[in-house]
Amino acid sequence: MSTYVREVAKRMFAKEFRNSDLSFREGDDVYSPQYLLTPTGARVNRLFIVGTLIEKENIGNEAEYWRGRVTDPTGTFTIYAGQYQPEAAQLLSECETPAFVSVAGKPSVYETPDGDTITSIRPESISIVDGNIRDMWVVDTAIQTINRLHNLDGSDTYVTRAKEHYNTDKGSYSSMVMDALKSLKEQV
Question: Max CA-CA distance within the chain?
Fold first, then answer.
């Protein structure tokens, strides 16, 4: 009997997530896991973000379908929750903005008819957190991003694929990390 093991949720800043547009399945059937490959070589099936919920709106017609915008020091994530994410949808419907929130969920990539790529998150869970949790997330995410940037010099299959697809500018992502960390000092 096999046991189901949930993938580890990766941490990444909004800028890197929004710059990601390479999604793929590992396996041939419809149930094979879907991944997003980011410019720093992260292979993401689930992600974990913490930021400020600055906006929420029920965009559903017949049923509630919530869209939220969560900011971190580098940009904005868009999240969507509806009938298949009832707990997340309920929290969005009841939460006052602005509020610090943590979100664990699945990345979603949509290509518009004119060829643009839109990334969003389908939340598995959303929780209200405090500023200390958000600050710890920024530090943890900075460390994980720097580690991925160091690994870009390697020859791992996903790193190679990310370098070929994105032609990643390591300096740009290093600056992003430094700016995110500086934002913490500015709050003190």
Answer: 52
